Amino acid sequence: MTRRTSRLVRVLSSALAAGTLLATAACSDDGDKDGSRASGVTASPAAMKQPTGSPTTTGSPTGATLTESGAQTALITEADIEDDWTQVKDTEAENWHDSLLIGTVDVSDFLTAKADAADCQRLMDSLYDDDLLGKPSGANALRGFTQDDSRLLYQVAAYDRSDPQDSLNWMAKLPDECDQFTMTENGEERTVQVIETSLPDVGDAHEGLRVTVQGTTGGEQATLTLDVAAVRVGNDAITVTAGGLDGDEHDSVEQAVKLGTQRLQDVLAGKSPASTPSEIE
Predict the structure, then answer these.
(1) For residue range 219-267, what is the model confidence (pLDDT) as tens digits?
(2) Which H or E run contains 239?
(3) Distance CA 222, CA 2 (A)
């Protein structure tokens, strides 16, 4: 991959954060209607479904099917994550979209342009649409939290008619394929970096990423940092996306993954998850 050297800078006033962080769905929908999210790079069928590198557990560990009420019960609470996160209304969390994630990946950044650029485009699109593991085929529940100018979105979903392991295999490739690239939106370039992050050893499989986007918003330089995690439990999975213009939220993501996976496993085993975490590190 040809890397473009770019020094990422974080310049942000509190007024900028309030005005630009995570554009609402109303703005996003307008952008979709006028074609602003249309991309010249589309993921090929091979990019959308990667070969499975390890056997996938069939169903949940107990053979139970995740229900809508079970998915809701498996969601984490404010007590399950560190710091001072505040839960928001579900309708608000459903409408979170960040305009800095919108753009067309520059194919010239890649040695194997079609394959790698398509995977990187898929990453940016899925982060914007909050469907990192694809569209759930079964029960689905999400919950959002805010802390200062950062946001955390937590999702529990069933993928009975697809294979979440395929998406985890795809995620594992991204730090190599998409380590640094540029994308363009309305004539402005944005620099994106993707690195692997560590997660607690939970679930049947898991992957963690940090995605940093540096660009211009409101005439000022801004850096969006998102910590992203996905954990598979049978054919069900949890995904966590946290961050914003304030930066690093990795500790909160780790805690959400650790306690959230246990909550999902308890639900699938027919148990009631603990109302408070067993430990906060």
Answers:
(1) 788 999 999 999 999 999 999 999 998 778 999 999 999 999 999 999 9
(2) strand 236-244
(3) 24
Give the position of tokens 């982060």. Answer: 127
Residue 18 token pair: 């309030």
Q: Give me the residues paired with residue 54 across strands.
A: none
Give residues with Cβ within 8 angstroms of 72, minimum separation 6: 141
Q: Which of 2, 23, 3, 4 is nearest to 222 (CA)?
A: 23
Tell me 56's DSSP state.
Answer: P
Only one residue has tokens 């505040």, namely 86
Strand order in the sheet with 104-105: 86-87, 140-147, 150-158, 236-244, 220-233, 205-217, 188-196, 180-185, 104-105
The predicted model scores a pTM of 0.76
DSSP string of 172-211? Answer: HHHHHHTSEEEEEETTEEEEEEEEE----S-SSEEEEEEE
- Per-residue DSSP letter, 109: G
Instruction: Give dist(CA 176, CA 140) in Å, integer.
Output: 30
